[in-house]
Amino acid sequence: MPEEYSKYLQSLNDRQREAACNDISVPLMIVAGPGSGKTSTMVGRVLMLLKEGISPSNILAMTFTTAAASEMRDRIGAVAGKATAKELTISTFHSFSLQLCRLHAEKLGRTSEFLIYGHGQQRRAIIEAVRLLENEKSRQNHNASILGEDSNDITSLQLLKDKSKKWLKFVAQAKASGKTPEECCKMGDEMGGAILGNYNGILKSCNALDYHDLISCSVKLLTDFPEVFKESQDSWKAIVIDEFQDTSSMQYDFLQILASHNRITIVGDDDQSIFSFNGADISGFDSFRKDFPNYKEIRLNKNYRSTRCIVEAASSLIQNNIKRCQLKDVLTDNSSGSKIIIKECHNESAQCAFVVDKILETASNGSAANCSYGNIAILYRRQVSGKVFQMAFRERKIPFNVHGVAFYRKKVVKAIIAMLQTTLPACDDGPYRRVFKALLPFEKEEKKRVIDYIDKISTIRKCSFILAASDIFSAKISGTFKRSQLTQGRKVLSTLEMISKLVNREQSISAIITSVANMVPQKYLLEQRAVIDVDGGKLLNEDNDIRSVLQYLLDDVSEFLSTKFVAVKGDAKVAAEGKGCLNVLKAFIEFISERERDNFRSRRHDNEKSITLTTIHQSKGLEWDVVFIVKANESEIPLLHEFNGVAKENGNLIEEERRLLYVAMTRARKKLFILYVMMDSNWQMLQPSRFLKEIPDHLREVQAEVSVQELQTKQQHIPNRIAQFSVDVPREMELSEVDVPNDFLKTCIHKASEDLTDPLEASNGNGFLRRFNVENRS
Ligand code: ATP
Ligand code: MG
User: Fold this and answer.
1) 270 CA distance to ligand 2 middle (Å)
2) For position 756, what pLDDT does the model report?
3) Which of 241, 307, 654, 682 allows an S-S link to 62, with CB 3.0 to 4.6 Å?
4) CA 320 to chain CA mean position, Å
């Protein structure tokens, strides 16, 4: 065995080593709590498979996010060498099944060029599916369609659009549970069955699949086509899966067939299952036990990541869940560390101020060497809670990185991608429409009028968007357009022609992307600045947006070219040079479209010296020395969904929410802060998360907000105001309980004190004073 391998395996503890080195022909299940080295053991398992003579190109490792896939490739590469790591297939379920579907597209009634429909395209397909059904009905009844005589008119279109939301949801659910149109009909839902059937038919006629289809089509390929099954057995001689608890039942079916040879290792922790909204189903562990009866189960119980205090606090929390299938004792030899700080804050800005203070304190303590910004993370339930931190960090020039910044969802980036997509064969209307939106230099309303008109012509003539646009702008159709509109429309068409020439000249992808990015008009960039602002992140730290957008894209091009993916897809020689042949461009667009779904920011961009801002869901599997969990309030964790205005609460949901906090807490190595706020921006009182009470007293230090009395003695100018508040607040809030206004009062005073220090702010409508006066007058 290469020396590096044995060194790595020696660094594991006995149980981890036993797992990694277990007989590779025996199905293996590793179950363990957070930070116990599951992922580390999985790396060891891959080394063992290599050592046993399985070629790296025959090993398939599945992870749940592209970030986790990159991480795993890096970790294996560090031991086995980059060349070997590159040979491995480390993939997410979606990109793996996409490749399989492409390879056998004709068996699915598609060509290998098939399109993947995103949300917008799915919506248009649903609208069409509903329209078809309505037309069919009206024909049968000899009545006018309920949509009106002319189903092309604007109001009927609007009606269709409204309906489409409901039907999209229906189709997604039906597909997730593997229902066919016929099954829907059998279950009495004839309308649902008909719409699903129409929708599938439209996708087929457009040579498209949607994301839901990928896994089910892969299962179909493996079960209905013995030759595909045989090929998969020859190709993937061993399979390892990290974060198994997040597999959906359909993904499990897929795995089970792929692993018919029994060389499968699954690694997971049911307590960290937090993706049930995506169909994750922890009953997969039981299915595994049943379907692979000669399996071996190994449990790891030593936490290497966190201090004892954090480990114990997290364990106490999760013990409140009743439905746990594998009870785990998590122990640690680490020092007990400091208590978990639970901090009460008046509002989100006070919360942010506290975090910033703590961060600067850590940095100025001289401990910055031990705890660089890269070792700090701020975790929140919803992306929106990160906004205030982005602003504060930007102001103070503290470097930060937003995970899930949705780079590929930025309109500017989408426009660039759409421009590239128009060069692919079988490009449908979506990208063309987007390109017109980006390139037409009109105000929003005018732009919309022009695009709606093209849409209308394409619907009436039953032709594509781009064909309608060409006819309109080349004046084959006498439209109502002004001369300037015709001129600008023509310009867009010639830009599209230029892009297509670029691609045909077989330049490198980088060169094509650079040219295309430079075609995005300055006006559009400025228009979209507000959108970029909302997402925040590094992008705005740089003064020239398009250059940083381009740099991000080019980074991803080089990462894409360094993976095995390209060689699989096309002409190896062209691929190696990264030349812009259509296949490579198409493969690149697929590569990044998966990142879009993942909200992925490549780890390479994660500057070691930056603070990480991320949602808890995205923080999975990662770790930092210092973690701040912010806005740990009721209504965030647990986040309760409202149905007809009533928050719906059920045991399963609450348990999943508890697991979410568990995942968040167990990301911390040394120091954990949990913060909650007392009031939201609409002056509504908020409660701390119910879960905070489940952390034992001896493991936490609760830091309350300053009391009214303290505030009075600290800030002499406050008392006058208190008199006013104490009279007016209860009236305003119409509250019967006495203790709530007190809380409210505390917050008001804090806010008023802030306002008084900045009278300008108080008077410009942002502050409390104005609000107070208004309330007072009424
Ligand atoms: P999670 O459930 O959060 O995904 P995990 O079980 O996958 O956690 P790892 O990420 O593999 O845990 O490991 C957690 C930390 O513990 C890492 O920093 C890793 O380097 C360290 N670690 C794992 N095993 C050992 C070991 N045997 N000796 C020392 N450190 C270890
Ligand atoms: Mg892990």
Assistant:
1) 12
2) 41
3) 241
4) 28
